[in-house]
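Weekly modeling sync, notes
Attendees: S.R. (lead), two postdocs, one rotation student

Agenda item 3: backlog of single-chain predictions. S.R. asked that every request posted to the team notebook include the full sequence so nobody has to chase files. The rotation student volunteered to paste the first one in as an example of the format we agreed on. Action items at the bottom.

Example entry:
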Amino acid sequence: MSLLDDGDGPRRILILAAHPAPRRSVAGRALRQAARAIDGVTLADLHAEYPRLDIDADREQQRAEAHDVLIFLHPFYWYSTPAILKEWQDIVLEHGWAFGHSGKALTGKIFFSALTAGNPEESYAEDGYNHFTLRQMLTPLEQTADYCGMVYLPPFAFFRAGHAQEDDRLSQHVAEWTGLLTALRDRRLDIEAVRALPLLNGQLKSLTVED
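Predicted structure, as returned to the notebook:
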């Protein structure tokens, strides 16, 4: 079922959450709260831990090594991540650890971005006003994952996040997020199949094996 041969027990999931103003993020806050309630999931609030962006490379490398799945949880700022996640990559993904002849620490780990976006989904297309798909815009993260030997999955996205309180989409998205995390943890997600998708959300039910 899966491309991975990384053991039989539950996967350990590390979520690196980044939002400069988390109290103003209704959708992001809901996703963080849901993740914290799941056994086997570690959620790290990078802005709370490193308010001056003084990231501890040794600590972060040890934390990454202790988990099987790494997720960036963030708002989609200017078609990318908040600055602290770029700083995390610059500081933590060192030669000889993440890449290079002896840099194998992340090999085989699963990685993807879970994000909230202000624009509607249809805007992220060749004929939309953003001109590119969300996955195309995140190509630097995909290439980084590939360069470090990781298994990259497409983004898990919540669109029109600023309108989360005006409709009934958020509760459904949080439920799907919870289902995704538990399926990853319990090895019920068809990794090979989801890798080819433009987005993780929307089709998970058909790609998940029930207990």
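Discussion: group reviewed the output briefly. The two ends are 14 Å apart (CA to CA).
Action items: rotation student to repeat for the remaining queue; S.R. to check formatting next week.
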